[in-house]
């Protein structure tokens, strides 16, 4: 296990990049603590896999350094980095038994057979596959094949980091929650540094202690699942995390106050000075329906089981609200109340309000 440091990291697939747009990864400075559970979250093409390949040694960055526990490994090949990687599709040997699949990484490194047996037995118990150890891997279901693939990554106790690249993409939806829970349980037991790459917010937020959100080659926010939900540092985070995503509304700033559709809004704190496109961000969960607030008209109501999502129009702008109680019907007039402590100003996408306590 190791602390992983990315220092001034940039990467371009062009031989002679000349502008920021030529870089698949913009400058990244990042520390991952030893033994932590982390997720790289973002849409396809945002740079997640590029970053993972750089950490693993499959790709050499255009600029910057990768350090494991302070040691520069930027020039080292993958086999000298002590990394285990679990891919989207299970990497196992169908002709081998489950036991031999789990034992292979250890035997390949000359570990004595007594240690191999003890370690395989330990991992099999964690994965709940002890009764399958004698079964040929070809006969396993897809979710159990991925379990064995995970086990091959965890069976070595000398790895610096275990990396998961979209490991649940090909798993049936009703089995994903089982494997997510199992992976979280495994991390708590083995305490290895784990990095989980995904475009699925549910996978990232249920697995990781810290989530790194990426967009267009940049890290836009690092935080706990609660921090990302309750105080997005960028409108992209607010939009990408949450269902429905954060309301991002046009705003005017006058005399230090925020206005939306002509209505003055109370926000979480002081609005930072600056130029650029200003917007209001407030999650639907923090928009209340009642007799006071911004006048609106209901356009649509969606019943999603545990709550209802109300689409209401203020002036010419659509605002979403989440309610677990009774809601007005389509076409009815309503008032929307934004919770001030969760209502923020964003400028050119970035958070532009400071908490009152600051």
TrEMBL record:
<dbReference type="Pfam" id="PF00005">
    <property type="entry name" value="ABC_tran"/>
</dbReference>
<keyword id="KW-0813">Transport</keyword>
<dbReference type="Pfam" id="PF08402">
    <property type="entry name" value="TOBE_2"/>
</dbReference>
<dbReference type="InterPro" id="IPR003593">
    <property type="entry name" value="AAA+_ATPase"/>
</dbReference>
<keyword id="KW-0378">Hydrolase</keyword>
<feature type="domain" description="ABC transporter">
    <location>
        <begin position="4"/>
        <end position="241"/>
    </location>
</feature>
<dbReference type="GO" id="GO:0015408">
    <property type="term" value="F:ABC-type ferric iron transporter activity"/>
</dbReference>
<dbReference type="GO" id="GO:0005524">
    <property type="term" value="F:ATP binding"/>
</dbReference>
<comment type="similarity">
    <text>Belongs to the ABC transporter superfamily.</text>
</comment>
<dbReference type="GO" id="GO:0055052">
    <property type="term" value="C:ATP-binding cassette (ABC) transporter complex, substrate-binding subunit-containing"/>
</dbReference>
<dbReference type="GO" id="GO:0016887">
    <property type="term" value="F:ATP hydrolysis activity"/>
</dbReference>
<keyword id="KW-1003">Cell membrane</keyword>
<dbReference type="InterPro" id="IPR027417">
    <property type="entry name" value="P-loop_NTPase"/>
</dbReference>
<dbReference type="InterPro" id="IPR047641">
    <property type="entry name" value="ABC_transpr_MalK/UgpC-like"/>
</dbReference>
<keyword id="KW-0547">Nucleotide-binding</keyword>
<keyword id="KW-0472">Membrane</keyword>
<dbReference type="InterPro" id="IPR015853">
    <property type="entry name" value="ABC_transpr_FbpC"/>
</dbReference>
<dbReference type="InterPro" id="IPR003439">
    <property type="entry name" value="ABC_transporter-like_ATP-bd"/>
</dbReference>
<protein>
    <submittedName>
        <fullName>sn-glycerol-3-phosphate import ATP-binding protein UgpC</fullName>
        <ecNumber>3.6.3.20</ecNumber>
    </submittedName>
</protein>
<dbReference type="InterPro" id="IPR013611">
    <property type="entry name" value="Transp-assoc_OB_typ2"/>
</dbReference>
<dbReference type="InterPro" id="IPR008995">
    <property type="entry name" value="Mo/tungstate-bd_C_term_dom"/>
</dbReference>
<dbReference type="InterPro" id="IPR012340">
    <property type="entry name" value="NA-bd_OB-fold"/>
</dbReference>
<keyword id="KW-0067">ATP-binding</keyword>
